[in-house]
Amino acid sequence: MSFFKVQSAQAELISAHKIEIEVDISNGLYAFNIVGLGDKAVGEAKDRISSAIKYSGFKSPKQKNQKVVISLAPANKKKVGSSFDLAMAIGYLAASKEILFDPKGRLFVGELSLNGETHKTAGIMQIGAFAQKNNFTEIYVPFENAEEAGFAENIIVYPVKNLDELVLHLKKEKLIKPYTKISFKKTAEKILNKKCVAVENLQTKNISPTIDFSEIIGQEIAKRALLIAASGKHNIAFYGPPGTGKSMLARAFSGILPNLNKEEIIETTSIYSVSGLLKNNLVFEPPFRAPHHTSSYSAIVGGGLNIRPGEITLAHNGILFLDELPEFDKRVINSLRQPLEEKQISISRTSDAINYPANFILVAAMNPCPCGYYKTNIKNCVCSPNNIENYQRKISGPIIDRIDLWIEVNNLNQSEILKTKNINKESVSTLYKKLATNCREIQQRRNNKLNGELNNKELSAFNLSVDSEQLLFQIFEKYKLSMRSFYKTIKVARTIADLENSVEIKKPHILEAVQFRYKKY
After folding, report:
1. Do 409 and 219 meet the contact criterion of CB atoms below 8 Å apart?
2. Are residues 250 and 160 both part of a single domain?
């Protein structure tokens, strides 16, 4: 009989936790069991491990006629995926006395193929950060994950190509060359120079922000509203007939958002890494998610048998664009209440409950009715009053209140088209991005938060001039605003004042903010 223990880890959304791999071998009839609440991928690991061991020049448990039990501890924590293969294989070889090494300070993560080669594994960035925080000195990861693991500081990263290579390294017969780390700044610059967008999506296309505001004719009020939304991280909705540029404005919006800071880059990259959607090694730009209105509740919110993040979480630190908002399932629309207010989404199942981050800017677009032409001069509306009412009622009052800016987008007339025909096509998005970045810096210095993220208590410190405060209360009384709408108006007005470098919130700032509140179509 023999026993050996090695360390591995399992990634969660933006963190990881330790998994101890305990291997017990005894003589007798062949049996190979993996215990510890593993999913099907964990259960199938015994076949991958046995084959990989055989192809690495050792006898498999079946060939030795051994009884093998591998326990993944803690036993009450569900284990998901194939990332424990490498640790289990090394643990078995050590328990069977094929290799001798000290497991202290070493962490093993990676999937094995049948011939012993390693496969790229999701969640390595979180596992690297976990190893760093928990005083591990060495981490062994698949070769393709080396750069991702390299963001962990004060830890040696060994890129493993196959099981045989790792065995020789642990025997000190042929050492693996440690991964040469590149500084975070250099990696970010490399990605920026290559103009790499960070992710690919299994459910929706990742839309690159290739539209400049200079390409959009007219719609100056909508562009102004988008600048305000980008500057203060405010939610925004467009409504109007088809073909007026609502979707185009939303796609251009991603081009004026300030770049992510270091913490946001690591946090966003971690989400895409554990979701298996990481194409490059860093998510450097704010994510732009545009799910189709036929997407399921679980695809948008998150969930499933093994709880996974949905589009709401994949849009964290970026944009969630919901085109044709009333066409989404009503349950999906109402599920936006929590993330729009609390910047996180809670998913509860019988077996588990998880809080996922969901701090995004909602950009919504909608038509006034199912056909799109209610109260327009373009075409006659063919919808019945009942259809129009049902269509508009899908957007509930609490959702309307949580959206800071409502913009009506109409067709352009001939003079507006001719007016912009000969305008110099310099990049307007570049200018707007600079303005938004500078505006955010003002807010961070003042509150260490953006205006759209402030709670009502923090708003009490805002500097309203006497006449602007009086005006605000007059508007509150006249239009019977809810308290949420009242505070949303102050937040937007504060952002408008910041764009003008104004210390005080003045009457023009209040008036402009009020005109962006929701008006029934």
Report:
1. yes
2. no
